[in-house]
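fold-stage: in
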Amino acid sequence: MKKLLSLLCAASLALSLAACGASADTNTNTNTTAPVAGTLYSLENATVLTFTDSGITAQDGSDTGYEIDGMALTITDAGTYAVTGTCADGSISVKKGATGVTLVLNGLALTSADTAPITCNKSTQVTIVAAEGSVNSLTDSAKNNDDESPDNEAAENAVIKCKDGSQVILCGTGSLTVTANGKNGIKSGATTAEEGEASLTIRELTLTINAPVNDAINAEQTLNVESGTLTISAAADDAIHSDLVLNIGAEGTDGPTITVTACYEGLEAAQLNICSGDINITSSDDCLNAANSDLSGYDFTMTISGGTITACSSSGDGFDSNGDLTISGGTIVVWTANTADNQPLDADGTITVSGGTVLAAGGSNGMGMNLTATQPCLTFGSSGGMGGGPNSGSAITKNAAFTVTDSDGNTIYSGSAVCNASFLFFSSPDLTDQAAYTLAAGTTSLTAETQSGTVSSGFGGMGGGPGNRGDFQPGDGQQPPEMPSDGQRPQMPSGQKPGGASSSQS
């Protein structure tokens, strides 16, 4: 299984690298070239365009490959275009079907009053680069939401809009801040027979997104977050969402650093693959979710083969798969404060733990789950747990220090509780099969014996149903609950988006 996951991660990396056909340069010196994300780009023959509140001007008077209409810039042909300046109401769009376009953001602060600051139209191939050392920002308004402003024909529902069939790469060694006052931060479209295959890849970039209305990043087909530093300060719904495939990191790499400080759900996709990275998520509902309520009869999967994941949910599941959940590597710490039926690890199918270090703790008294462990594991406390027996109240209280020790008193694991927990599940390559271990937290001391194979555990199962989100619906004016401090890409039927809706957006 671990070999298969490695192949999946390697395949996703190869596919996304192959999509990076454009070349670009992060250096403002037009006589130099610099590597970005494994490619070369140059500004030597680039068209330099400057935004101001009074107009858009081109350096050296160049007038080919683009069109200017007031404060709207349209890229019409392949080439490298460097954009800079500040504008309170402007926009950039790449014409439908244009390929080989590199858009270099080099000190750009662009706000749009009623549309997306950047739009990559259907069937485009665009590399958006944040120039080395540059600071860039893109902001929209509440009018950029056709649900809330149905009379606004210019609304694109995202700050960066990538339409059906577009293949877009966000990269560079500069920084980009996206503020979504309309709906989504970044939106990528679907694959269709007419427009071709769609994908969105993020690598190397320092990217900050604030999305108080809906998703920070939303994709309908394939979303790759390979590397870089991604900070999502707020997302009213999902932090990072794909209707189909979401790949985080790549085999043999350090992967991205992802910090989500507030969201409803964290990472969600029908196929969620985490190969590498340093991921920290605080959510009110599920931190990781393999689901899509628009897909029926689909084999949902969540596979984790590497990386470091720290996650906490205040009222949902930690990791929730509407199919199988497989962990073969990495370091995972997941907590859920819910005291009802939400669990740190939850799957409608089978949970398999074959490697890595996994600590999962929850506030509920536990529910049975289908767990297969080829690596020894422990369950402390909760009904159905080992050694501790039925446990009323919390085995560990919030902020309490705790240790897991072997029979000789050697510390195997130590940490601090993120929330009250009635049970704790732990698996590590450092554990010995059929040996006794002790969980100590304050005055509480519980002893359990390691298990492997089909494991009797006190949590998981039951699921939540595909896309179950309680009473919260994005865009209905409600706020999410308050939170505490293979390798192939599946495709939807031709011309359809998930749910069977026809793809008609221009």
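fold-stage: in (second)
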Amino acid sequence: MIEYIKILILAIFTGVTAPLPTSSAAHYSFLNCVLNFSSDEKLFGFYYSCFMLAFSVAVILALRKIYIKSMKALFSKEKDRLTRAYKERQKNIFLSVIPTLLLFIPVSKDMLLADYFEKFLSANSLLIVAATSIICGFILVIAIWYMKKGVNLKKRGATSTEVFRMSVYNLVSFAVPGVSKISVSATNLLICDVDSKVITREVFMYLAPQVLVFNLIKVIRALISGLVFDPVVLIIGVAAVALSGGLIISLSGKVNMKKLYGFFSVYSIVFGIFVGVISFVI
């Protein structure tokens, strides 16, 4: 019963923080140390990958109309402006996934680049989590400064080059917990002059396929390797992430997220300092 409560706490925090400009992996890693949930880095990483799969599916369901229209436009012969725009989005969705595949390049006989994530999730890496959380806080400060600066004509969507570059930048967040995918993606698009009013939609739209592909491959690899896990624990965790993450995703569509960047920049820095202090105590 205690294990079920622990996974529920981990899952709820993951679901709530995943759609926000703060690192869900950082909270997941920190809570694992506090709750002493698992010392098995492969099992711990497997649960997190399943949680992020649930998050990516929640995002895709929330933006299903855009994805469906983009897919239909891809096979349409119409040449109107709206159809061309949806075709461009579909192309960008495919482009966003390509850099993620680089993480599955072998770096040794038994290890891929993506496998470093599990090592960074372990209790011995809290200082890394602390440092990256602080860095992400300052990344949001850059985003806030850029919004206040007020620059060129605001674009209503990201170009293919900008989406691809955003995906490349996100490779670090897939390998090192503490680097917030939302923060990195949003800051990159803001610097590219994408309108802050549509930043949340644009980030979710191109980030979800990346998260889906990356974690789906990791889950399949774990299952093929014969990893042993508790299915009840997994079901509880995935359900909690889907519900809590889905709620935050729906609320993010009603709230101007740019107004929250200030709060989360301070929160990420304070959280990073707190984790750093705790790492010397645990």
